[in-house]
Amino acid sequence: MYPNSHLAALEQLSQRRSVKAMDLQAPGPNQQQVDQLLAAAARVPDHGKLGPWRFICFQDDARQAFGEHLAQRFSELKPEAPTVAIEAERGRFCRAPLVVAVISCVQAHPKIPEWEQLMSAGAVCQNLLVAANLMGFAAQWLTEWYAYDETIDTKLDLKSGERVAGFVYIGSATAKPDERQRPDLQQRIQHWTKS
Questions:
Q1: Strand 138-142 relative to strand 53-59: parallel, antiparallel, unpaired?
Q2: Which long-range contacts (CB under 8 A, 24 or more apart) does 68-72 make?
Q3: Where do the domains of the chain lie, and which CATH numbers do they carry?
Q4: 3-state secondary structure string across 20-66
Q5: Bridge partners for 45 per DSSP
Q6: What is the SS3 assignment for 102?
Q7: pLDDT 10s digit of each residue in the chain, 195 long?
Q8: CB–CB of 41/121 below 8 Å?
Q9: DSSP per residue over 4-32, as a string?
Q10: Among 158, 115, 132, 119, which residue's Cα sits nearest to residue 39?
Q11: 10 Å Cβ neighbour count for 156?
Q12: What angle do CA 65, 68, 71 make, to 5 degrees?
């Protein structure tokens, strides 16, 4: 039998729901909590102990400063964009008190496929969502256009073989999110039998 604390965590996990970044607010995690979140996020399967991921944290004024890069790049990509759209890009990272960029760092390796390294970075993003939820915060894992833009990659100082696995927005929910329709789990479970 599991201890009550484990059952409570399992119950919380079974009800985990992403909260839209625009529905997040302060307070966010303090520095000790950020350190705990990142430590939990890093506890993922990692074939060969490569650590094929890293974190870039955006807090406080850094969110607005990075928003300037987003606004400038968005203006370059869409010179016809209205001012309101450019301002939305400028404030994008201010939607939550903490934004964590999870960077996938694929390394050439004779025994460890790229796919496994990418999956490890994805597991980091999921662990970060779960840890934030268990800590009492709300979160959303996003990519959006700036995760795929080479100019923004340069601003993030990404190296060869690196790419954004996701931006995880973390804060407090303005309201409890509505439950969304989920895939029929029974339609996605198969029990293999020897044929």
A1: unpaired
A2: 69/152, 69/155, 70/146, 70/152
A3: 19-58+96-173 (3.40.109.10)
A4: CHHHEECCCCCHHHHHHHHHHHCCCCCHHHCCCEEEEEEECHHHHHH
A5: none
A6: strand
A7: 556 777 777 777 777 778 899 999 999 999 999 999 999 999 998 888 989 999 999 999 999 999 999 999 999 999 999 999 999 999 999 999 999 999 999 988 989 888 998 999 999 999 999 999 999 999 999 999 999 999 999 999 999 999 999 999 999 999 877 777 878 888 888 888 887
A8: no
A9: HHHHHHHHHHHT-----GGGEES----HH
A10: 132
A11: 19
A12: 150
**Rounded distance, CA 68 to CA 52, Å?**
29
Task: Please report, in angstroms and rounded to a whole number, the separation of the first and last CA atoms in the chain.
Answer: 36
Burial class (CB in 10 A: 0-12, 13-18, 19+), 59: middle
Residue with tokens 């990142």: 38
* Predicted TM-score of the model (pTM): 0.91
Pairing of strands 162-173, 138-142: antiparallel
List the structure tokens of 195.
């044929």
The length of the chain in residues reads: 195
Report the pLDDT value the prediction gives residue 1, as an integer from 0 to 100: 58
Q: Give residue 76's region: left, alpha or beta (phi > 0; psi -120 to 50).
A: alpha
Q: Which amino acid is at 188?
A: R
